[in-house]
Amino acid sequence: MAEPVKKKGMSSFPRNFWTVIVMEFFERGSYYGVMSVLSVYLVLSRDSGGLAFSKESVGVIKSVITPLLYLLPILAGAIGDRLGYKKVLFFAFICMSTGYFLTGFSDTYGTVFMSLLLVAIGAGFFKPMVAGTIARVTDDSNSSLGFGIYYWSINLGAFLFPLILVPWMKSISYNYIFFMAAIGTGWLLFLNFFVFREPKGTASGSKSILKIFTEMVTVLKDYRFILMIVIYSGFWIMYFQVYDSVLWYLTEHINMAPVNRIVNSFLSLFVSNPDWKFEAEHVTAMNAGAIIVLQLFVSALVRKAKALPTMIIGIAIGSVGMGILAIAPSPWIFLTGMFIFTLGEMTAHPKFISYVGIIAPPDRKALYQGYSFLYGVIGSGVGGILGAWLYVLFIDKLNQPSMLWLTFSMIGVLSIIGLLLYNRFLAPKN
Q: How far is the C-alpha of 311 from the C-alpha of 333, rounded, in Å?
């Protein structure tokens, strides 16, 4: 009897794969739609539609909620394996949708903080369910393509929502952005109930919570690995400024009129009297759009290069991009700096993931990949508070914006020096 012909390419993926891809697109679109303007909204005066919180207090919020997105998946993955992905997804969507909805109605620091905390808990539980489903429904023949589509769905959501929906919602009220996100994640409850099917092998109790903490101790005892993560986190302290201090700087100090005139001149070929404006949300859209267009090209360019030197080059490119902002508050300098920074991200981070796989013990590669999330915990935990404090010091008080961007650029330089020393004295020799 002849063996059935195995499907290839896009047709090789089952329904569950495309279901979680849709979930990922809407969840990430909702998340990045909110994050593209959140820091601006929270500090904007009430007369302008904001909540008039201090930048330092917003830094505290961001330094609590963002690290949760990197910490919770470790625990959530084990819970999903024990209770089933479907149950965890219900919990995640309820938390996120409720959190966004309550944030839209909140106008005090405490209620906003608690509402966003609910969003972070939901998002932290959601992330490993998607990655876990994709891992379970793919094999060696289509796993690379599957996770590539997954990565694209993240950036497509991060591109389209801030570019199209956020400006529309914002023109009505900032609150509508949160209601948009509540709907964007809330309808996924129905997709989960009617379309998603529990993957085989879940709800089996494969890993206990005690096992997770035992593994955590094992990884934390590997001081060389942890030190490398800490050093690399310097780049991510810079990265998380893109959602905080960079947006404040754009909103308060850069006149984007020259860019707006060029874009509106082009749009006038298609519509009458266009009134497009480059605003905070477009920074996120620009970052995601560049990754969609250029990531495959950049990855191909450095495909055969050694991982750690390529990481260092990527951090150097990102540091240059951040440093360029120090030249002048020009719209063209701002856009150039942000684009170069994104090139650095595209160069460094895929190679970081690869490098973790290289240096991890042969029998613990998956474990080490799981705990490489610490770069995000440290980067966002430090970056939120540090960015707000330095912004207030250098820009609001001293009126020296160049010092802010040079300081962050120097953090990148310190990461480069740290990785060079790590490579010289501590890196495993292959």
A: 25
58: nearest Cα among 43, 45, 37: 43
- Residue 159: both structure tokens together: 């591109």
* Domain co-membership, 97 together with 222: no
The answer to whether 287 touches 342, Cβ cutoff 8 Å, is yes
Identify the CA nearest to 250 among candidates 290, 294, 287, 293.
287
- 2 belongs to a structural domain: no
- Provide mean pLDDT across the span 331-351: 96
**Shared-domain flag, residues 290 and 403:** yes
What torsion, rounded to 10 degrees, do the Cα atoms 214, 217, 219, 221 define?
Answer: -140
Q: Which residue among 185, 207, 229 closes a domain?
A: 207
User: The whole model's pTM is what?
Assistant: 0.94
Question: How far is it, in rounded angstroms, from Cα 9 to Cα 186?
Answer: 31
Taking 3-state DSSP, the helix, strand and coil percentages for the chain, each rounded to the nearest 5, stand at 80, 0, 20
Question: Which tens digit of pLDDT belongs to each residue from 200-247?
Answer: 877 665 566 677 778 778 888 899 999 999 999 999 999 999 999 999
Across 161-189, average pLDDT = 97
Its domain, for residue 149, covers 13-207
> Is 1 part of a structural domain of the chain?
no
pLDDT in the model for residue 3: 47
Residues 171 and 320 in one domain: no
Token pair for 279: 């605003």
In a domain, 4, yes or no: no
The pLDDT > 70 percentage for the chain reads 95
User: From its phi and psi, is residue 18 left (phi > 0), alpha (psi between -120 and 50) or beta?
Assistant: alpha
Which residue's entry shows tokens 């009617």? 194
CATH number of the CATH domain containing 96: 1.20.1250.20
pLDDT band at residue 124 using 50, 70 and 90 as cut-offs:
very high
Residue finishing a domain among 184, 207, 230? 207
163 & 201 share domain: yes
Quick one: 143 and 250 in the same domain?
no
Per-residue pLDDT, averaged over 309-325, amounts to: 97
